[in-house]
Amino acid sequence: MLALAGKHHPRARLTGVASYLPERVLTNAELTEIVDTTDEWIRERTGIRERRIAADDQATSDLAVAAGEAVLRSTRTSASDVDLVIVATTTPDHIFPPTATLVAERLGATAAAAVDMNAVCSGFVYAFAHATAMVEAGFARKVLVIGAETLSRIVNWDDRSTCVLFADGAGAALLEADDEGAQGDGVIGFELGADGSGKDILCIPAGGSRMPSSTEGVTHEDLCIQMQGREVFRFATRIMIDSATRLLEAAGLTVDDVDLLVAHQANERILDHAVEKLEIPREKVVMNLDRYGNTSSASIPIALAEAAERGQVAPGDLVLMVGFGAGLTWGAALVRWEPRA
Ligand code: COA
Q: How far is the CA of 41 from the centre of ligand 1 (A)?
């Protein structure tokens, strides 16, 4: 699916972003006491040095609420003015109710519709695109898009090939309607895709309706993330370039027009590949996975929030977001960074 924002009003603008990371830091050195690994292997193969892990009493909604509160505060937005809350997550508090309903209630977004979106590590871009559509269709004026994960709860801590990668965190963005916006402002477009033929290379086999957790013979492993690392790596490196290129071409833009690339923080080598193939200067690419690991649908808003905080992105800059993950799914979005003054 490829879409460019039309000439009609309103335009959807990205006016704020914020993040929340749990306090607990889990270092590579600590991981060597859990599984047969080394700090050197993890750093060389992934770029990760440490990651955050939610406290025992923190669920995904707690992280999402903290990030949501932060973005409402920074944009001086009243929760009661929010029309829609979308929580992108793979690790909801419960199968139902949706985590978004819990988040909306705790934020005081009493007038908002609330729904979860599960597109795994592409979740934030998918949610962002859906939020844009709701704003541009005139159905919503203010949408809170939150990516939040507690992947530490679905990782197999005996599997060294996955437990060193995934972690916890949340990021939140505010999208607002602008009736005066011109083409080229706000959200410029997005490209979303899916290929279910790759369903087995990254999945949790059990715990859903195909293989309920009560099924005889279901093991702990079946209820945790299972991954064919090399296959995922191949897909990620290919799709990041393809999706970004398709979107830029359709929008009549080039990589030179992009001020900041905020890609899913899965692996430093995947990001390095994008730097090389897209020929984008490294200083235009956000990298924070050394400190947070792979936080799935939370990684893009966390990275964008950090970039904004340290002045790596300025008002009016063109931001290219690219996500990819299980499903297989992927998504790219082009948006101007237009924070509330
Ligand atoms: N510590 C030490 N050794 C490890 C290890 C760890 N944490 N994890 C795996 N290994 C071992 C393997 O057992 C294997 O050993 P063997 O050759 O004796 O069988 C060896 O390292 C190489 O494994 P391989 O899977 O080929 O390594 P790799 O270079 O492909 O790196 C990943 C593994 C997971 C880092 C890499 O494939 C990757 O990043 N894939 C993408 C994953 C991803 O981003 N997933 C999320 C997408 S949203």
A: 9
